[in-house]
Design brief:
The complex is a heterodimer.
Chain A: E1 10-16, E2 21-26, E3 30-36, E4 43-49, H1 59-66, E5 76-78, E6 84-91, H2 105-112, H3 117-120, H4 128-137, E7 150-152, E8 156-158, E9 164-166, E10 176-181, E11 185-190, E12 207-213, H5 228-240
Antiparallel strand pairs in A: 1-12, 2-11, 3-10, 3-12, 4-7, 4-11, 5-6, 6-10, 8-9
Chain B: E1 14-18, E2 23-28, E3 33-38, E4 45-51, H1 61-68, E5 78-80, E6 86-93, H2 107-113, H3 124-134, E7 150-152, E8 175-181, E9 185-191, E10 207-212
The chains are: A alpha+beta, B alpha+beta.
Chain lengths: 242, 215
């Protein structure tokens, strides 16, 4: 069953300007629609069990359970404890990267030059790593908790020998991806440029967040049924909330 | 890229066997050479590295992949830390390709990947936990410090359309990978006990670990 996104069901909306960062609690049974407002966005995401933040997104377990090297509709985001933190229930982008991590200050400086608060105030160039660490610190977390991220809207493909290429224009203006939260999740986001984005002008896209209630995964849910592994992942998740 | 080493095991200062399913933990000094030898072939060696002086700085799969724009590890690959520093460099490799996407098996991931009843099979993360609880060089590390690792000798090809498979290994008896420490590092290994997929040829076997002093 595909959940229909109805504007009248939106609980709240907020726009993260390009380059900025955000964190918040997303309760089990809610969803976020991420909208790429201008095209070419990157939205790096980290996921933690809000009640036990030692439980966190594990990109390796996520990829090997689903036999994929990227994420799209039907895929779930696994914690290191074999539970489903979140699910991609709708996606009109088709490929979201999770193997390249985030940009750091040295990468941004090498790609775009430097632009500090002192010279440019809030138009300063920001990077993904520092933004995520700032948000993590608000929840008592730090560098030891900085895992690989899901980089929504970004696509990086390998060739036959494993050399990687960033795919420009993977996400068009208005593209959306809907993420259902299957646990109470501390969600941490950064809209700073992807680490492999070759653009030479620093102009990261803004991303709109729209929250809504979608309820828990049904027995017919597209993510629960996309592979037998996910069916077992949902059993583990549901046992946690009994 | 296949590249052989000229180092003689007779001159190694460490020469130990890590049995199938066991953990191994040790420190390497900057410029020391570390070799992992696949004694019987097709044995995945799940490996993590930490800065010996500050374990908050550790091997980073995403830095290693993104900074070199390459998925697989072999001769010439640099193993980058979470701070973007070179931790080790692979200087010899007779296997040709090593995985760093697949991570470590755990009791919990075995329940999703194979069957809810597989929770009680021995796993790499259980070995990591045991090592951190018992090794002197664990330096107060805990589960929080366990990140995505390297799987030496493991073959996890990614197709150009983004598929990921656990394939039969390309390693064999006597193949090895050798790396030079670029900083003082703590090595944490689980010699993988996984029996549910071909990563160990369904038959986990011992590996040999050797260390030489640098020039």
């Amino acid at each position: 069953m595909v959940v229909k996104f109805k504007p009248e069901n939106v609980l709240w909306e907020e726009t993260i300007p390009g380059g900025c960062h955000w964190s918040g609690l997303m309760r089990r049974g809610t969803a976020l629609r991420l909208t790429d407002l201008t095209g070419g966005a990157n939205c790096s995401a980290l996921f933690y069990n809000a009640e036990d933040k030692l439980e966190r997104y594990n990109f390796s377990d996520t990829l090997k359970a689903q036999h994929t090297a990227f994420l799209t509709t039907g895929n779930v985001v696994y914690s290191d404890m074999g539970r489903v933190l979140a699910s991609i229930i709708n996606d009109n982008v088709g490929w979201h990267d999770t193997i390249c991590g985030v940009s750091d200050a040295s990468m941004i400086a090498a790609q775009y030059g430097t632009s500090s608060y002192q010279t440019h105030h809030n138009d300063m160039y920001r990077n993904g790593k520092d933004g995520l660490l700032i948000e993590l610190a608000k929840h008592g977390l730090g560098k030891r908790d900085l895992t690989a991220s899901v980089n929504f809207f970004s696509k990086v493909t390998p060739d036959e020998v494993g050399n990687l290429s960033f795919v420009a224009n993977n996400s068009k203006a208005g593209s959306t991806v809907d993420i259902r939260f299957d646990m109470n999740v501390l969600l941490v986001l950064s809209t700073a440029p992807h680490s492999l984005d070759p653009k030479i002008v620093y102009a990261p896209a803004a991303v709109k967040l729209s929250a809504l209630h979608v309820g828990n995964a049904s027995q017919e849910d597209i993510c629960r049924n996309s592979c037998a592994q996910n069916g077992r992942g949902f059993v583990n998740t549901e046992r946690y909330y009994l | 890229m296949i590249a052989e080493s000229q180092l003689d095991p007779k001159n190694a200062i460490v020469n130990q066997v890590c049995n199938a399913g066991d953990p191994w933990m040790a420190e390497l000094k900057k410029d020391q050479i570390f070799r992992i030898l696949d004694l019987e072939g097709n044995q995945a060696v799940d490996t993590l590295f930490y800065s010996a002086s500050n374990p908050e700085e550790r091997y980073s799969v995403v830095d290693t992949i993104a900074r070199q724009r390459r998925l697989y590890l072999t001769t010439g690959s640099v193993l980058y830390s979470s701070e973007g520093n070179a931790m080790l460099t692979i200087v010899a490799d007779t296997c040709g390709r090593h995985d760093t996407l697949g991570g470590a098996c755990s009791a919990e991931s075995n329940t999703t990947r194979y069957d809810l009843a597989k929770r009680h099979m021995h796993s790499c993360r259980d070995s990591f936990m045991h090592a951190l609880n018992t090794c002197e060089c664990a330096n107060h590390m805990s589960k929080r410090d366990i990140t995505s690792n390297i799987n030496f000798f493991m073959n996890v090809p990614v197709t150009v359309d983004g598929g990921l498979v656990f394939a039969d290994g390309i390693s064999g008896p006597g193949k090895y990978v050798e790396m030079r420490a670029e900083m003082d590092v703590t090595v944490l290994i689980s010699n993988c006990p996984q029996l549910n997929n071909p990563c160990n040829g369904y038959n986990p076997t011992p590996v040999r670990l050797l260390v030489w002093n640098g020039n």
